[in-house]
Structures are given as C-alpha cells and as structure tokens.
Write a structure and sequence with these properties.
single chain; about 325 residues; Rossmann fold; seven-stranded parallel β-sheet; 10 helices; binds nicotinamide-adenine-dinucleotide; binds uridine-5'-diphosphate
Length: about 325
C-alpha cells in the first residue's frame, strides 16, 4: 500500500531533494513550508504531480493534516549562519515550537519521525573528528547560539517523545552538505564562492582560511537520510563526508574549477566560527551500511553547472532574502 510522508522545509535545499526522492520511491508526499528561506522554484516541478500535496504553513503554528501519515521528516529551519543571524527568533521557534508540533503530529498519527539535527551540536569542537559520544562545546549566548541551542533542544525533546511517549524517532546529525538548489546568496561558503566567481568578484575568505570543513554532496546525504529513516536506530547518527579541507585550499579549488582569474580577499573571521569540523562516520557505516560516494570534484562540478544555468538576475541578486513579511513577533 502507498505510504504517506510529510516533509517540513520542502521548498528548501535539502527538503526539495527529499521530496523528489520520496516521490521517485512511490510515496505520497505532503510538503510543508512557509518560504522564509526556501524558494518556490525548488518544487515548482512537483506542483502538478498527483503524489505531491503542498501546504504553505509556518510549522511553529498548529499543524492540521487530515490524511494518515506513516513518516515525517522535519527539515524546516534556517540553516545558513547569515540567515539565522537575521532571523534569530524564527530560528529558535522552528527548532523548539516547530519540533514540538511535529512530534505531537507524529504521536497522533503514530508516524515515525526523523529530525534534521546538525554538526553544530558539537559547537567549536575540542575533539576531532567528531563522534556522536562527544557532548560538544557550544556558547549558548554567542551569535550561533540561536541555531545551536534550538537544535540541541530539538534533540532533547525528540528523545523525550521517544522515551516518554514511545514515538519512533530518528536523529540525523548532518554535516555541511551542498549541491544544486542552495540559494546562491544564502552566505554559505559554496554558494558564496561560486556566486563571486560567476560575478567576477574576488572570493571572500574569512580569517586566514585555516579553519576546516568537510563537504558532503546532497545525493549522498539523501541516501543516508533514507537509510536512517528505515533503520532501527534511534540515537543520533552523524551523516557527512569526512573529506576535510581548509577554507583557503577550498577557495583555490573553486578558482581552478570555475577557471576564474579572480583573487582572494581576506575578511574578519565571524565570531564563533568553528575552527575544525570533520564527521566520524563509523556509526553510520556500522548501523546503516552508509558511506558517501561522490567525490568533491564531481559534486562541485555539478553544483557549479547548476548555478551557471540559473537566470542571471539570480547571480546578481546580492541582497539577502527579504524576511520582513515573516517577522511579526
Ligand atoms: P534551507 O534554508 O534551504 O531550507 C529550510 C527550509 O525550511 C526553507 O524552505 C524554509 O522556508 C523552511 N522553513 C524555515 N522555517 C520554517 C517554518 N517555521 N515553517 C515552515 N517552513 C520553514 O536549508 P537546508 O540547507 O535545506 O537545511 C534543511 C535542514 O537541514 C535544516 O533543519 C538544517 O538545520 C539542517 N541541516 C542542513 C545542513 C546543510 O549543510 N545543508 C547541515 C546541517 C543541518
Ligand atoms: N566562509 C568564508 N567565506 C564566505 C563564507 C564562509 O570563508 O564567504 C567560511 C566560514 O568562515 C566557515 C566556512 O567557510 O569557516 C563554512 O561556512 P558556512 O557558512 O558554509 O557554514 P558553517 O559550517 O560555518 O555553518
């Protein structure tokens, strides 16, 4: 029998790829989004699909879905540091109130729920690489605190619904993921550098660029989420690509890939920017038989081809998204 899945954050980068994947697998998909950081273009191709139903709704308000649900994926949340600095209250609310609503819905529908947690749980880590047993090093009142603490609360309430109400829960700790459908100007490093290369601007490296990240291609992440949802494992699982690189080396890779003769300009390192990040994925290997397969060179090429194919007004839209219509309280 056809299964029903609700995906919050459906119009976002990851949510839209998840919608495509579950449609392809034969599910009936209920997408929900309020477009605060998402883009209708990411799901435009699904609006006429018989198995796709969309709700324009803020998940921090009560969610009313009439149909039975088998699964829920909670991916609604700003995810770029620039976004969550601009909309800190919405970020805290979607991680806390939004997660509470979706857990309540999962309980009422007896659905299994997977929540999108993050490597930011580990903050600026003093343990390297980061294993799930590490409790992290988070500054609750720093600029990133609104995101990090919302996500830590999200994990805590998810485990409470699991332990107290017996809801079937899954927690994915997602490390930096990239690919087509990121917002070109969302400020995250890959769209930032690629947008700059397209516009003929110098690449803005923060600090000396000796901080590291480990980038996972979206198709690998989607595959990991799918495996985690259908696994029996209810504690958090890291999903990411351990291939670690410094930001300065990464900027040089992008200059080479984009055949750009631009320079690098150094800007101040934002407060609270983690100095190192690399997932230990031994648990995902063991429990899910999952490893990422896409090389950074292939993934980056696909992503750059996508950005290049966008209409030029998207390349030049240097203002960040207008959040004002969402800010009521
Ligand atoms: P994104 O900003 O592209 O997508 C988030 C989507 O959620 C947007 O479409 C936005 O409009 C929607 N949304 C936000 N608040 C909402 C609300 N109150 N009600 C309804 N919809 C709302 O970001 P993304 O990169 O796709 O991230 C998706 C999820 O994955 C987030 O929860 C994020 O924390 C998590 N995550 C992403 C990464 C990554 O590298 N992309 C890493 C770790 C965790
Ligand atoms: N970064 C940078 N220049 C930019 C944007 C980001 O040097 O224009 C750096 C940032 O300081 C961080 C890394 O790239 O160390 C990844 O940043 P991103 O915003 O993508 O995600 P984060 O992992 O910090 O959440």
């Amino acid at each position: 029998m056809q299964k029903n899945i609700l995906i919050s954050g459906a119009a976002g980068f990851l949510g839209s790829h998840l919608c495509d994947h579950f449609i392809k697998e034969g599910f009936r998909v209920f997408g929900i989004d309020n477009f605060i950081t998402g883009d209708k273009d990411n799901i435009q191709h699904l609006f006429n699909h018989p198995n796709f139903h969309f709700f324009d709704h803020d998940v921090t308000n009560h969610i009313d879905i009439k149909s039975p649900l088998d699964y829920i994926l909670h991916f609604a949340s700003p995810a770029s540091p620039i976004d969550y600095l601009k909309i800190p209250i919405q970020t805290l609310k979607v991680g806390s109130l939004g997660t509470h609503n979706l857990l309540g819905l999962a309980k009422a529908k007896q659905a299994r729920i997977l929540i999108a947690s993050t490597s930011e749980i580990y903050g600026d880590p003093v343990v390297h690489p980061q294993h799930e047993d590490y409790y992290g090093n988070v500054n609750s009142i720093g600029p990133r605190g609104v995101y990090d603490e919302a996500k830590r609360f999200q994990e805590a309430i998810t485990m409470a619904y699991h332990r107290f109400h017996g809801v079937e829960t899954r927690i994915a700790r997602i490390f930096n993921t990239y690919g087509p459908r990121m917002r070109l100007n969302d400020g995250r490093v890959i769209p930032a550098f690629m947008g700059q290369a397209l516009r003929g601007e110098s690449l803005s490296v923060f600090g000396k660029g000796d901080q590291t990240r480990s980038f996972c291609y979206v198709d690998d992440l989607v595959n990991g989420i799918y495996k985690l949802l259908f696994s029996d494992y209810s504690l958090p699982v890291n999903l990411g690509n351990p291939d670690e690189i410094t930001i300065i080396d990464f900027a040089n890779e992008i200059l080479k890939l984009t055949k750009s003769d631009q320079k690098i300009s150094f800007k101040p390192l934002p407060e609270g920017d983690p100095l190192k990040r690399q997932p230990d994925i031994s648990l995902a290997k063991k429990e899910l038989n999952w490893i990422p397969k896409t090389s950074r060179s292939d993934g980056m090429k696909n992503t750059f081809d996508y950005f290049k194919s966008l209409p030029k007004e998207k390349w030049y839209k240097t203002d960040h998204k207008d959040f004002s219509k969402h800010i009521k309280n």
